Amino acid sequence: MELAIDDVLKSVQDERLLDISYKVLSGDRINEEEALYLFESNELTALGMLAEYINRKRHGMNAYFIVNRQINPTNVCVYQCDFCAFGVKKSDPKAYEMSMEEILKKVEETYLAGGREIHMVGGIPAHWEYERYVSLVREIKKHFPEIVIKAWTAIEIHHMAKISKKNYREVLEELKEAGLEALPGGGAEIFSERARAIISPNKANAQEYLEVHRTAHKLGIPTNATMLYGHVETLSERVEHMAKLREIQDDTGGFQVFIPLAYWPEGTRLGGRRTSSVDDLKTIAVSRIFLDNFEHIKAYWITLGEKLTQVALNFGADDVDGTIEEEKIVHSAGTRSAYGHSVDKLVSLIKKAGKVPTERDTFYNVKRVYS
Ligand code: SF4
To answer: How large is the average pLDDT for residues 233-250?
Structure first.
């Protein structure tokens, strides 16, 4: 059910916002200055209506989810980013490393329950050799050829290139040959050098993150893109971040979805406060309006919580991620959402948001519509 243009326009009060709305409704691209104006606007309803107008034009009433599982093979991490409560030193009592057998057992559970995607990312231990990352992918694919492996962030790929003395292309080709089919979007955080120097000064920088994704796209590996917001970044820096992604997407078309990730501060060295619901909804809406070359915008239920995710599905988001089963990274930082959800629960959550639950695979091919 599309929204009527007149209804969208009636929700706008401010004149400048009205001008931007005409542009959006006629399908024109907005610029960075206009995106910043949207972020600074207090007209939340109007932003939501505009974003939802675009969303429904693209996806009708469908809201996507996947039956998947997250696996975090280890939380030991050499980079020690100040915003992260998950990565710990090897000597930390909370440190863990899963064996190959443990990982395969988890994958088997997912497979038997009908799941066909493994999302695998984790800490980056100093003592792991390059071959370990490749063999994890190879072993999963060997035992479960039908499972799609979406694994290793650009930060992990950059690290693999560093320790193996290979370039991004060589690493990605080897992973692809081992069975990797997509890259997750984690590790982008915020591209601003100023903010990155505060929250994660040690790991791959923005240019390196973007180069990994660009290389993956050239090799036919689709990737996701994220933005961590609500810590030390400014609204202009959020817009700059999205503009860089939009530029690459114009070139390659390889991003599948944009995922704004709300920052959770508990247990981090950076500290700070949780984002407000208004900020979360605005960020979803502005990203839907600004990223006109991204097909999907995800309301990640782990960071937003289940209830706000339902609202976000009416503020421009068309995807909620999946069943996940065992999320550890954001839970380390205090999120109150569940660790995972059953298919029934996700279907009910989406239906109660007024949308049609639509099960998808990793590449957004529709598997089942729960009409
Ligand atoms: S964000 Fe990633 S790279 Fe940084 S400490 Fe956490 S796990 Fe390590």
So the answer is: 98
Residue 266 and residue 251: Cα distance in Å, rounded?
A: 38
341 CB near ligand 1 (under 6 Å): no
| CATH of the domain spanning 59-369 | 3.20.20.70
The 10s digit of each residue's pLDDT in 193-207 is: 999 999 999 999 999
Nearest ligand 1 atom to the CA of 153 is 2
Contacts (Cβ under 8 Å, ≥6 apart) of 371: 356
How large is the average pLDDT for residues 214-236? 98
pLDDT tens digits, one per residue of 143-191: 999 999 999 999 999 999 999 999 999 999 999 999 999 999 999 999 9
- 3-class DSSP assignment, residue 100: helix
Q: Please count the residues of the chain.
A: 371
pTM of the model: 0.97
200 lines ligand 1 (CB under 6 A): yes
Tokens (6 digits) for 162: 């560093």
Q: Are strands 366-369 and 356-360 parallel, antiparallel or unpaired?
A: antiparallel
Query: What residues have CB less than 8 Å from 210, skipping those under 6 apart?
Result: 154, 191, 244, 248
Are the C-beta atoms of 18 and 41 separated by less than 8 Å?
A: no
Answer whether 86 contacts ligand 1 (Cβ < 6 A): yes
Q: How far is the CA of 79 from the centre of ligand 1 (A)?
A: 6
| Per-residue confidence (pLDDT) for residue 170, from 0 to 100 | 98
**pLDDT of 283 above 90:** yes
The domain limits of the chain are 5-53, 59-369
Pocket flag, ligand 1, residue 88 (CB < 6 Å): no
- Taking the CA atoms of the chain, what radius of gyration do you get in angstroms? 20
336 pLDDT band (50/70/90 cuts)? confident
Mean pLDDT, rounded, of the chain: 96
188 lines ligand 1 (CB under 6 A): no
Give 227's strand partners.
260
Strands (E), 111-189: 117-120, 148-151, 180-182
Q: Which of 77, 78, 227 to mutate to test the pocket of ligand 1 (most atoms within 8 A of CB)?
A: 77
